[in-house]
């Protein structure tokens, strides 16, 4: 919101308009209908762009791979330094 409109909005405020969250459990039917229509349109549009799923999966995989490499490097170092030096 800050980047688009120049205002700061707390996540809790936004969450109060999501009927799937506890904060939005008592929304008026009007707002629930708007939420569901917007969510359905968003999901359909994302499905049209199949590559977006692949891009997200690749990004997540890249993060996992980087973390795994860091852990492997740490484990290798620990193994090396835990051996008797002589």
How is this structure best described in words?
With 86 residues, the protein is mainly alpha-helical. It has two domains: 1-48, no CATH class; 50-86. It has helices spanning 2-5, 11-15, 29-48, 50-82. The mean pLDDT is 82.
Give the key terms:
single chain, 86 residues, mainly alpha, 0% strand, elongated
Overall pLDDT level: 82
Cα-atom radius of gyration? 23 Å
Low-confidence stretches: none
Summarize the amount of helix as a percent range: over 70%
Structural class: mainly alpha
Q: Tell me the β content.
A: under 5%
- DSSP strand tally: 0
- Number of helical runs? 4
Shape, per Cα inertia axes? elongated
Distance between the termini: 61 Å
> What composes the largest sheet?
none
Report the order of strands and helices. Answer: HHHH
**What's the structural domain tally?**
2
Summarize the topology.
Layout: H1 2-5, H2 11-15, H3 29-48, H4 50-82
Brief account:
The chain has 86 residues and is mainly α.
């Amino acid at each position: 919101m800050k980047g688009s409109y120049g205002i700061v909005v707390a996540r809790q405020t936004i969450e109060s308009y999501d009927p799937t969250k506890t904060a939005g459990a008592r929304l008026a039917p009007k707002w629930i209908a708007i939420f569901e229509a917007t969510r359905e349109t968003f999901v359909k549009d994302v499905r049209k762009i199949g590559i977006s799923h692949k891009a997200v999966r690749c990004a997540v995989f890249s993060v996992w791979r980087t973390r795994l490499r860091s852990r492997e490097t740490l484990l290798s170092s620990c193994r090396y330094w835990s051996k008797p030096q002589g």
